[in-house]
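Final report, Chapter 2: Outcomes

The project's central promise was a pipeline that accepts a single protein chain and returns its three-dimensional structure in a standardized token representation, suitable for archiving and comparison. That pipeline is now operational. To close this chapter, we reproduce one record exactly as it appears in the project archive, with the input sequence first and the structure output second.
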Amino acid sequence: MEAIVYISHGSRSNDWNEQFISFITETMKENIAPIQAYGFFELAAPSIGEAIESCIRKGATTVTVVPVLLLSGNHALIDIPTEIADSQAQFPTIPIMYANVLGSDHLFLPAIMDKLQEKGYQQTQDELVLLVAHGSGHEETAQELSQLTKVVREVLKTPVEWGYLSREPHYLKKLEMTLFKEYQKVYIVPHFLSKGGFTDKIERQLHEAFPKEIGNQIILCNPTGYHELLHTMIQNRARTPKKPTIKQLKDS
């Protein structure tokens, strides 16, 4: 029997964790896998190992772990696979596979458009859309965010750029380079699943750096969020070819 385990980062905020649980419970209704569970990488329970073990105890003969993460990074590329490898060592006869992150899926476009239109985006050439993610030193992360930016730009046929909150290329530098030269308005879209510390940090930085422009020339949008199309994206990841775990790679 196939099992699907959906993994979120986890948070000290119960509200944040409950948002994920509520959302992923709806996602589970769209999958015909006989066994499904969710887990958290850190700061909440059940853990990844506990979620995998619960599925195997229920009779799962294969397990697919789906990271409910927007982009690759340390958690997706190193931390979660390491946790999976520990479970694989505990249950060596049960294949445990690992799906891709959500990445640059074109289905993000309606979610991004919803956030822009909430703030009055008119889809004109003198408006810039700036996607902001947390940031990672992994090339995969930059490639995914760059590709998503390209998808949005090609569909909207308007200027779209991207930047990081915590690394180069930093979104504030991109904002400074473009704001007063070309665009009447810049729409900042935080590419996160929900509001929290990262979005609060963006808001603080914008108020500190551009106190006169924020709310007028600079428009801060709500984060990409748990859009209903994420259900489809997540299930697509669960159904597509899977990557082997670290242990399987070492043993091959």
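Archive annotation: The mean pLDDT is 92.
This record, like all others produced under the grant, will remain available to the consortium after the project formally closes.
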